[in-house]
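Sanity check

After download, print the first record. It should look like this:
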Amino acid sequence: MTSRSPRPSALGRGLAALIPQAVASTPGPSEIPIAAIERNPYQPRTAFDDESLAELAASITAHGVLQPILVTETLDGYRLVAGERRLRAAHLAGLERIPAVVRQADEQDQLELALVENLQRADLNPMEAARAYRQLRDLFGLTNEAIADRVGKARPTVANTLRLLDLEPDVRDAIEAGRIGEGHGRALVGLSPTGQRQVLALAVARGLSVRQVEELVRRLRDAGDRGSERTAAGRRPDAEIERVEDDLRRALGTKVRLARSRRGGRIIIEWYSDEELGRLYERLTGGNA
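Expected structure tokens:
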């Protein structure tokens, strides 16, 4: 499918900036039957905590639904665009109708709006966000830059999150379950499948920080994945090297590592897409790739 040209969007400013556009052409939120609402097939969030839903349902029972959901009209009724938790909790609370803003939205809009609402509420775990970004890329042909513009994120953030999809299933599951963080996962990208599983087990067992995992991965790579994980984890990186790496990461907006050798060393700059390579080229040379 061909890409739609990146369009000026209010997504980066928040979901609330979008709703007045629909309100302007309608008298306001309507009370619509919950039974007439079809779930959003592009909903990026897959995990819903039963306890938090019960708490929200109790609040709705006491105070009602304070913020309307967002829907689009279909031939058979309505399709939910944003507000999955509110809809589920309202149903749990026994409501038959729910306040909703009705807005025309195509399939891409439905995914973008659901994604942005969840990101702004910090409701998505990193793997859910990564899968949603991939949908925007694969289904609608959006570049990482266009995705970043639509969801109000930096382009390297989108690229780094997408790279989580390259991880071993065990590592992806650990991120989704919250046993390790997104930063831990990014450090493992590019490591062999066996190496990923070994470092994952060590990181979970010892509660390693992202910095410790990065150092462990660096030493495993330098040793050709033949070194001892325990020995590597116990070695402390040179403080000056660590400081320089941090400065370079901030300056270039990507992962940078220094590898010492007998006569000097190497600066290794990682890039994850042609777009990011072009950005690094411009930053390093002041020219255009």
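If your output differs, re-run the checksum step. Summary of this record's structure: Confidence is low (pLDDT under 50) at residues 5-27, 225-236.
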